[in-house]
Amino acid sequence: MASGGPTRTCVALVTGGGSGIGRATAVKFAELGYHCAVADIDEASARETVGMLKTPGLAVQVDVSNAAGVQAMVDTTVKQFGRIDCALNNAGIEGAREKIVDYPVDMFDRVMNVNLKGMWLCVKYEVAQMLKQERVVSNPETWADKPELCRFQGQRGNIVNTSSTAGLGAMPEFTPYCSSKWAIIGLTKTVAQEYAKEGIRVNAVCPATTDTPMRDRFEAHWPDWQAKTDASYPVGRVAAPEEVAEAVVWLCSDACPFATGEYLKIAGGR
Ligand code: NAD
C-alpha cells in the first residue's frame, strides 16, 4: 500500500439534523464512515438521528440564530471529534403563508434569524475552525477503496448550505422564506471566494419539494399544494431526502474539487 494517506476518520457536522434532509444526510455521512455531529434546536430529535448512525455520533442542541450557541456547537464538535471536515448548514423554517401586505413583521424576523442569520453564523464559525485545521494531503491509492479515509486533497474543509429552488425563483406568499433562500446563494458565493485559496470550499444545494415534515407543514398551509407539486414535476414526484443527501456528500467529496461557490439544483427536471 502506498504511504502518505491519512488514517483518520472524517468528521461531519449537520444542522437541522433531527429531521428530513439533515437526518438523511447525517445517516449518509455515517454510511460513508464519517463521525457525525447532529445539531438541532430539538435535542430529542438530534439524539434520535444519532441512534440511526452506523458510526459514533454526537447530538448537539443549538439554536442556529444564537451566535454563542453556534460557536459552542462548533467547539463541542471539535472537542469530541478533533476537527470538522464537512458541514451541512441546513436548519430552516418556512414561516407563515401570507402575501407581503398581510405578512406579520415578527414572522419576517423569525424566518430571517433562522434561515439567513443562522446560516451566516454557522458559516462564520465553521470557517474560523477550518482555518485552524491543516490541509489534508491524501494519496488516492490509499483511499480509493477506503471511503472511511479522508478524501479532501489539499482541503481544510467543505461546507454545503441548504438553499432551495425558492432561492432561484419566486414563491408567492412566502416572501421571507424565498428571500432568505436567495440570500443563502449570495452568502455561499461570497464566502467561497473569500476562502478559496485557504482550501475551504463552500457550495449550496437547491432542492425542490422534498418529502419531509416541512413539506407536510407546507401542505397544511396550502391544502392543494401537494397535488399541484407532484404533477408539476417531470419525474412525477417530489424528492426523497436521501436524494438530496447524495448531492450533499458528493459536493463535499473529492469528486468535485473545482466546485466552489456553486449551487446544485435538485428539481426532478422542473
Ligand atoms: P424539517 O422541518 O424536516 O427539518 C428542519 C430541521 O431544522 C428540524 O429538525 C428543526 O428542528 C431544525 N431547526 C429549525 N429551527 C432551528 C434552529 N433555530 N436551530 C437549529 N435547528 C433548527 O425540514 P427539511 O425539509 O428537512 O428542511 C431542511 C432544509 O431544507 C431547510 O433549510 C429547508 O428550507 C430546505 N428545503 C426544504 C425543502 C422541502 O420541500 N422539504 C425544499 C427545499 C429546501
TrEMBL record:
Task: Enumerate the InterPro entries for this protein.
Answer: NAD(P)-bd_dom_sf (IPR036291), Sc_DH/Rdtase_CS (IPR020904), SDR_fam (IPR002347)
Oxidoreductase found in the keyword field:
yes
Q: Name one Pfam family in it.
A: adh_short
Annotated PROSITE patterns: ADH_SHORT
The keyword Lyase is annotated on this UniProt entry: no
Which superkingdom heads the taxonomic lineage of this protein's source?
Eukaryota
Assigned keywords, A-Z: Oxidoreductase
Q: Which CDD domains does this UniProt record tie to the protein?
A: SDR_c
Instruction: Give one GO term, molecular function aspect.
Output: oxidoreductase activity
Q: Which PANTHER family match?
A: DEHYDROGENASES, SHORT CHAIN (PTHR24321), ESTRADIOL 17-BETA-DEHYDROGENASE 8-RELATED (PTHR24321:SF8)
Return the similarity comment: Belongs to the short-chain dehydrogenases/reductases (SDR) family.
**Protein name per its UniProtKB record:** HSD17B8 protein
Q: Which organism is it from?
A: Branchiostoma lanceolatum (Common lancelet)
